[in-house]
Structure formats: structure tokens, C-alpha cells
């Protein structure tokens, strides 16, 4: 039978994945685009 060993961190620390920054930039730019679209729609209906 095989022996199971608990997972331990090795001597080298693993780097966190750098996927959070582009995702945050994408979400913030989407929110900004939507707010500009709503602002343009509301400002054109007021005139």
C-alpha cells in the first residue's frame, strides 16, 4: 500500500498568480464605460 504524506511548503516560496491585476483593471474599465454610457443617455434625454 502507498503511504500518504501531508503537503508541506518547500524551501522555495511559490509566487502568487499575477492574474488579479488585469482582472481588476478590466472590471474597473467596464464600470467606467457603463457609467459613461448611462451619463450620455441621461444627458441627451434632458435637452
Give a description of the structure:
- There is one protein chain.
- This protein is mainly alpha-helical.
- The protein has a domain at 19-47.
- It has one helix and no strands.
- The longest helix has 27 residues, at 20-46.
- The protein is rod-shaped.
Helix and strand sequence: H
Radius of gyration: 24 Å
Categorize the overall geometry: rod-shaped
* Largest sheet features: none
Unreliable parts: none
How many individual β-strands? 0
Head-to-tail CA distance between termini: 79 Å
Query: How large is the count of helical segments?
Result: 1
Mean pLDDT: 83
At a glance:
The protein is mostly helical and 47 residues long. The chain contains 1 helix and no strands. The protein has one helix spanning 20-46.
Amino acid at each position: 500500500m502507498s503511504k500518504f504524506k501531508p503537503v508541506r511548503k518547500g524551501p522555495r516560496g511559490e509566487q502568487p498568480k499575477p492574474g488579479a491585476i488585469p482582472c481588476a483593471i478590466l472590471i474597473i474599465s467596464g464600470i467606467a464605460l457603463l457609467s459613461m454610457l448611462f451619463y450620455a443617455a441621461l444627458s441627451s434625454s434632458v435637452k
